[in-house]
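Hi R.,

Here's the chain you asked about this morning:
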Amino acid sequence: MLAATAAMAMTVFAWHWRLGEAGRRIEKAGAAYALALLAGAAAGGFGAGTLNLWISGQDGIGRSILGALAGAIAAVELFKRARGIRGSTGLIFVPAFATSVAVGRWGCFLAGLEDETHGTPTSLPWGHDFGDGIPRHPVQLYESFAMAAFLAAALLLIGRRSPFFLQNGFYVLVFFYAAQRFLWEFLKPYGAVLGPFNLFHLLCAGLMVYSGLMIAKGRAA
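And the predicted structure, written out as tokens:
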């Protein structure tokens, strides 16, 4: 709840501060855009989260913010193609997404082992005991700190009206989030699907390729 509230507040702030034009692009796309985004996020979030649990030998229904991001992107890209909408429409979501992860991962950290987002055992001095007597990588905090740093950089670039970031900010976010998440996945006890890589490694790789191609496409246009 705190993460969602912080993300909403950041969206309102960014909209009125510098991203009014980006917000109006979403308004012009209409309610169907929002429905596509939400449906894609729900399908991707629950689908990837649950599949990862099954691959890791666990029962239940899982959720994944990485899966939600991938699902939302797929749904919105299909919607844009169907409606003939060109260019990025995601800039308005950049501060909100970074804020949501930076704040929300603290909730995951405090939830302990039951949240299934903890890291593997470690002997490093900052290893955290989540209640079972085993120090583990606090990967939730690694991700929180990484996205907080990205948020600070993004707000600086938006404030300076960086032409590159205003055009490609969403793709930069996707690439950065996927890249840092790819690293942390090596520190998680999830089941592998391809060599040393788990399901989320593959999703991260796909998102990095997607964002790189979209940035290159924009520069070539």
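The CA atoms of residues 86 and 190 lie 37 Å apart.

Let me know if you need anything else.
M.
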